[in-house]
Write a structure and sequence with these properties.
30 strands, Alpha-Beta Plaits, alpha+beta, 11 helices
Length: 521
């Protein structure tokens, strides 16, 4: 017997006057009947979900309830396209129904309808596959335990707790892949109408201020996304409520956006952005150029049609349509010092593996740089564009070329192209490398590793001073003397020192590893 046949033994308090297991049909009549003809049930902590996909997983259904509190039981009737979800409290169930009444949830791109069940409790101990259901419940509820008290207080007080406004402050940790304003909008707009976004870097951290139309939207977004990673092992969101009550956006560009005003200038002398937003007060649908992220995550939580999905077990977020970052992996880097043009690729290698570099024949201060993939190219642009090097401000953008061609032997510009595809300096050739979790913007503080025991503080200070840098501070790691931090006089000095000394031979078969640090001394 499957669970469909055992429905009557899986629930309690079942009146004989109402059929609570009518299967959904493919035409519109069932939907109309659901919305209009059925008399509504009184609130219950057991919720009935209609029109769930046949291939839905337990985790996907459970995760619909997680933002509202602990889920205590689940019964899926796949042949009837229905499920019963039991919440820990009636208050949590009421919050869930109220929220999804105005924001229809989607599972696998299919709308799901939620109403109170006539049942007050699910009894599923004797049903098949319950061990798997209980394992999913235990895993997915683990991170929600701290939120239960907040959820109950929220529902009981009928309002927000002190300090919970409509503006969120978001810190993105381990920023290995670029997180654009469009990506932020796509993720956070699944919880409500986003009015304004401001991005900036402070204390070597990428930070965001994001304002919702309704404080409740901010509450649910924080509850669902805090601690989640946009991509595997990186771009982790740390979310708090901001003390600000309103954001003042002066420019509409790639750093800030006011979605309520299309007349704002871009801040660089360009005309205002073209209105790409179709706005209806109360709801807001914005069409951005699609941004594809990194694939390979199994989505667990779906909030809306075409929505960003998150995995409660892996803590990852997937941007829909993600099939690898499309586009170009070749950078055009300009305003280089012609006398020092090739070494700059080492600083680019902090943000991805450089395969080829070509100095332009007629314009020696410009170069083409081919990265391992388009994601690394975008990351290098986001961190190196505008950075000072050898007295000049670097400019980095995507090239119109898709690859850097190696010259044929005897060509006039043969010496201007170099192949680094097999370089031992590559930092990211191993998938899952810890280097993916330690990618930071250029900073005056450098992280040093692979230091042999015989090398002293003075040895390293003198080494970095030999590059023309002013050493401001130095300290070894207490738990690991193979690593240290060194703080130089400026970010430009640090970039120069990294180029000069990364992979420097320290003896004893140790080559110094240098990267930018998010810490200060």
């Amino acid at each position: 017997h499957g669970p469909d046949e055992l429905l009557s033994s899986g629930v309690t308090n079942r009146p004989s006057t109402m059929n609570d297991s009518t299967p959904a049909t493919d035409n519109g009549s069932d939907k109309k009947k659901f919305k209009g003809d059925r008399s509504p049930c009184s609130p219950s902590r057991v919720l009935r979900l209609h029109q769930i996909p046949s291939d839905v997983t337990e985790a996907e259904v459970i995760s619909l309830g997680l933002p509202f509190g602990k889920v205590t039981n689940l019964l899926i009737l796949k042949r009837k396209s229905q499920a019963f979800l039991e919440m820990a409290s009636q208050e949590a169930a009421i919050s869930m129904v109220n929220y999804y009444t105005s924001a229809t949830p989607y599972l696998r791109s299919q709308p799901v309808h939620i109403q109170y069940s006539i049942h007050r409790e699910l009894k599923t101990d004797n049903l098949p596959n319950q061990a798997r259901v209980q394992a999913a419940l235990e895993a997915l509820n683990a991170k929600q335990s701290e939120s239960l008290a907040v959820t109950s207080a929220f529902a009981a007080e009928g309002g927000l707790l002190p300090g919970q406004g409509s503006v969120l402050r978001i810190i993105v940790e381990n920023l290995f892949y670029p997180v654009t304003l469009e990506v932020l909008y796509q993720i956070f707009s699944e919880f409500g109408s986003v009015l304004k976004i401001i991005t900036f870097t402070k204390y070597n951290q990428f930070q965001v201020l994001l304002q919702y139309a309704d404080p409740m939207n901010a509450y649910y977004a924080k509850m669902a996304l805090d601690g989640k990673s946009i991509y595997a092992a990186c771009c982790t969101l740390r979310i708090d409520f901001s003390k600000l009550t309103n954001l003042n956006v002066k420019y509409n560009n790639d750093k800030s956006r006011d979605f309520t005003r299309f007349d704002l200038p871009s801040g660089d002398g360009q005309p205002p952005l073209e209105p790409c937003v179709a706005t209806v007060f109360g709801t807001q649908n914005v069409i951005f150029p699609s941004y594809a992220g990194v694939t390979g995550f199994a989505p667990v939580m779906s909030f809306a049609q075409g929505a960003v999905t998150t995995s409660s077990t892996s803590g990852q977020i997937t941007v829909p349509g993600a099939t690898g970052v499309p586009g170009n992996s070749v950078l055009l880097v300009s305003n280089l010092n012609p006398e020092d043009n090739f070494p700059f690729w080492i600083s680019t290698g902090v943000y991805g593996d450089v395969h080829r570099v070509k100095i332009m024949f007629k314009k020696k201060e410009s170069a083409l740089v081919q990265m391992a993939d388009a994601t690394q190219a975008q990351l290098a642009i986001s961190h190196l564009n505008g950075q000072r090097l050898y007295g000049r401000v670097l400019r980095a953008t995507l090239s119109k070329y898709q690859t850097v061609q190696l010259p044929r032997e005897g060509q006039e510009n043969e010496g201007l192209t170099k192949d680094y595809s097999n370089s031992p300096l590559h930092r990211f050739k191993n998938s899952g490398s810890k280097n993916l979790q330690n990618v930071f913007p250029p900073s005056a503080t450098l992280h040093l590793s692979n230091i042999p025991p015989s090398v002293t503080v003075d040895d390293l200070k003198n080494l970095f001073a030999s590059t023309g840098s002013a050493v401001k501070a130095f300290r070894f790691f207490q738990k690991d003397c193979k690593m240290a931090l060194i703080q130089l006089g400026s970010v430009e000095e640090a970039v120069h020192a990294l180029i000069e000394l990364h992979n420097h031979d320290l003896g004893e078969n140790h080559h110094l590893r240098v990267s930018f640090s998010k810490s200060t001394i």
